UniProtKB/TrEMBL annotation:
The lineage of its organism: Bacteria, Pseudomonadati, Bacteroidota, Bacteroidia, Marinilabiliales. Residues 14-82 form the HTH gntR-type domain. This is GntR family transcriptional regulator. Coiled coil: none annotated. PANTHER family: GNTR-FAMILY TRANSCRIPTIONAL REGULATOR, HTH-TYPE TRANSCRIPTIONAL REPRESSOR YTRA. One of its GO terms (molecular function) is DNA-binding transcription factor activity. Keywords: DNA-binding, Transcription, Transcription regulation. It comes from the Bacteria.
Length: 334
């Protein structure tokens, strides 16, 4: 049974574990084994070819990471997928899906080889969901891309994964130091964005930052406060804008689209002209903001670039830290 599926020869220049991998792939492509079939155990292969268990385990782990093999404790290994065209399988764990994350995802996919499979999941800022998603997928992927968002005390969970296959995206956390990371510097980005817009902001009497807390990065609030204090802008921070008064001469900096839609509707109701009576800056750009209310000014990281950089990191197994580019885009709302 072993030699029917696994063919290893000392005359082959290829490493033994690579021969095991290729043997399994060949057996699937030739119809010798199919999805759901059990394959010889680690001990059986090791004994048949006088190999160490570690050599066989190395091959099996790679086949698991590519999604070709699965394992049931106490029962052994089986063929989980007959899609042998997949050379690598990547887990992408985001916080939530929105237009910005979709742009990041699409850019990531576009910059990966065609034979790469990407599975995307969402933890929705829930530590229990996050933990469960990680635990259930240990050893099943070639790389793990993690967007921790506002979750804390997660290093012990990520320690379950092979450290050389983990990549952190969007937020740089002290507890995850040492992992490759592509991140936004929220404090610096909003400060620099407001600085770029400084001359336009002088046309208004007051700057208001809507900061509901929760999932929103604290760095935004710090950067906003530092900018206003340094340059003498009258300013306030609201936890919401639904019931707050809006007055001529105010500029609102908004962290999410829900608040943007609410404010635009209220301006229409009160017949306040956006870009003249009321200024608006929205955090995170999208194609929609090019047309809403004749164009909404934004401060935004470049999600397309982030996806491209992430693909380069994963494909070339890079390490280190990269701060993603952010910019202010002026439109008619300011």
């Amino acid at each position: 049974m072993v030699k029917k599926i696994i063919k290893i020869t000392s005359e082959h220049s290829q490493a033994k574990y690579r021969q095991i991998i290729q043997s399994v792939i060949n057996s699937i492509s030739e119809g010798v084994i199919k999805k759901g079939d059990k394959i010889p155990s680690i001990n059986e292969i090791a004994n048949e070819y006088n190999l160490s268990r570690d050599t066989v385990m190395l091959a099996f782990n790679e086949l698991k990471a590519r999604g070709i093999l699965g394992a049931v404790p106490g029962k052994g290994y089986f063929v989980e997928s007959d899609n042998i065209a997949v050379s690598s399988k990547i887990l992408l764990l985001f916080d939530e899906l929105n237009t910005f994350k979709e742009e990041l995802y699409n850019s990531f996919i576009e910059n990966l080889p065609d034979d790469t499979q990407v599975d995307i999941y969402f933890h929705h800022f829930d530590i229990n969901v996050f933990t469960s998603l990680i635990r259930e997928r240990v050893g099943k992927y070639s790389a793990y891309v993690i967007m921790p968002a506002n979750l804390t005390n997660i290093s012990s969970i990520l320690n379950l994964l092979p450290s050389d296959k983990v990549y952190i995206i969007d937020r740089k956390l002290d507890e995850l130091e040492g992992y490759p990371v592509i991140y936004q510097s929220f404090e610096e980005d909003i400060y620099n964005g407001l600085f770029e817009a400084k001359e336009l902001l002088h046309n208004y009497k007051k700057l208001i930052f809507a900061y509901p807390g929760g999932k929103e990065p604290k760095g935004f609030l710090t950067g906003f406060t530092n900018f206003c204090t340094e340059f003498g802008f009258n300013h306030s921070v609201y936890d919401q804008i639904k019931t707050k008064p809006i007055r001529k001469g105010e500029v609102f900096i908004l962290p999410n689209d829900r608040m943007l839609i609410n404010l635009v509707k209220r301006c229409w109701e009160k017949k306040l002209e956006i870009g003249k009576d009321i200024g608006i800056i929205s955090i995170n750009d999208s194609a929609l903001k090019e047309v809403v209310a004749n164009g909404i000014s934004t401060i935004s990281t470049d999600f397309k670039l982030m996806g491209k950089t992430l693909a380069d990191f994963v494909e070339n197994r890079k390490s280190g830290e990269v701060k993603n580019t952010s910019r202010f885009t002026k439109r008619n709302s300011l």
